[in-house]
Each structure stands twice: as C-alpha cells, then as structure tokens.
Amino acid sequence: MDKRLEHRLCIALVLFAAALRLASASGLDAQAEQAVARSAGQSAIGRLLLPAAGQEQALPEVFPVELLSAPESPDRPAEPPAPEPEPEPPVQTDPEPRPEITFSAQEADAITIAGACTYPVDKADLLCAPLPFRITPGQPSVLIVHTHSCEAYTPEPGWEYEPSDAMRTTDPAHSVIRVGDALAEALARAGIGVIHDTTLNDHPSYDGSYERMRAVIERYLADYPTICMVLDIHRDAAVDERGFPVALQAEVGGETCAQVMLVVGTDQGGLPHPDWRGNLSVALKLQALLGRSAPGLCRDIDLRTERFNQHETPGSLLCEIGSTGNTLREALASAGLLAAALVQLLGGPP
Question: Could you give all domains of the chain from N- to C-terminal order, each with its CATH number?
Fold first, then answer.
C-alpha cells in the first residue's frame, strides 16, 4: 500500500473515533438508556436534563428533572377497574308483635281521682277500655305545648336564671319549655313523631293564655291531622302554711324526682267537651303504667270542670311536672320517666 494512502487512512480512523466520542457526549447514550427503560415497562422515569454538549460550563446545583409517564403498550390496553360488589340487601324480618297492654281492676282501685268535678266515673271500665286513638308511624302524633310557658322552678347553684316575675322566666332553658324539650327528645328517640311548640303564650300577658294556646293547637292540627295527643306541660304552685314554696318529690331508683299530676278537663263548666271520658281513660292508663315503673311519682288525678283545650284531640292531657319548690333538675328526671311510660302506652319500642 502506498505510504501516503496509509497515512490518510490512519488520519480517517482517528477522526472517526473522535466523532464517536463526540456523539456519546451529545446525549445519544442517555436516549438509548431511556429507550431501554421504556421497553422494560417502567411506569414513570426521571430524566435529568444536562447542558448542551461542547459547552464548557458548570452544572447547576439543582438539576431540572421531568417525570414522564410511560405510554401504554399498544398490545396491552389498560384494564378497566373491577366494579365494586353491590351490597347485599338487608334481610327483611317482620317485627314481633308487641304484647297487648292489659290493666286490672286492682290498678283502677289504687288510683285516686280528685278535683272539683262531681261527675261519677267508672275507673275500672275506663282503665280497661281500648286506647281511643292510634299513632301514625312516620308522622307527627304528639304535640307538646305550654299554655304557661314561663313557669320556672326554684333555682339551685349552676341553674340560676333571670326571672321575668316570681318563679317565672322567659328563658326557655330554665322554664317548663326545657322540660318539654327533654320529653320531646325522648319520644323522638323512641321513634314517635312529636312536635314541640315553644310559643310564650303567657307573656307579656298572663290573661287569655288558654285562648291563645287553643289557636296554636288548631293551627298545628290543620297542618298535621295525624296529631292525636296534645300534652300541655305545666309547673304547679304549692306553698306551706308560711307561704314558702313546697317541693313535691318522689324517690325513684335512688334519684329525687318531681312528682307528676295529670289534669283532665270536662264539660261541667259549660264549654262543649263531649269526649272527656276518652281523655280520662288515657290518663288512667298512663297513671297505671307510671305506678308500675315509678311508684310514688304520680299524685292523684285532678278531674276539673274546665276543659283546658282538651276537646281538641282524644289524647289531650295537662301534666303538672313538680311545683315551685322543685328544681329543674328534678323536673327533668320526671320527664324521662313520663316519656318511657308514654312510649309504652303509644306502642313505641319496648
């Protein structure tokens, strides 16, 4: 071979080797690594961006990195997520029928009916008669009201209130409205539809409160015809011979409670109320149930000549929860016992 040709061939080989090194420095090797990584099925890769080849500059302290999502392989489409299994429907079971509540003549004899009304009554016959109404599941059945909404109790430490008059307050957290709240909440928890009205019917004027209360009740009955019982919650007033408030108390399960008096109105005072015996039948049943669960809690039933708006529903009752000498704490304890007896009477959960 000609020496001149051989020399030129050596120079060409050197230039070719230099070109290969230059190609490596320009990032072709990095692209090859990316292709290998993609072919290996990596879901995400980090790519480090370097300065352009051939430039003599220092690398930045923080290298920019871009995360790329690997494309789906065309021959392996993404599988849709497995559908969540549908929950199995609950097994429907017929509820066991509640045992029918029965009363006895002995329980009727144990109940005393007092008051100014002189009508003769057959306690045993009324006690054992069927309940004169049925509640409608899922609908309002009981309306709790307060004709004398401002009636309050003897304050104790931690239970003080701003009085609006003697033993009265417009603060619903410390009046008989609070007792109505407790009663309504207990009935609702038991599944009985209840409405609690907190209108101040006796403020600013005490006179005419029963007439204002009648208008309120009739509005509710027009809107909710399923209401079959109206409970008018009051606080009684009792004083001793010196004029000091008296606490009417009973010990039930080791707890001091305010005594309860059920008041039933009639038509003897002249206002129409032809079905008052139905209300008395309900009162006798409730009194008997409380006698079983909370002996000593109930005072004598008070049968009156006034009707107290009880002509509006077959289950209307006026309930005196405690007296001026009782505390709100004692009245709230009684509300829980009264609610339990009402749930049993009205057919709520046992």
Answer: 105-346 (3.40.630.40)
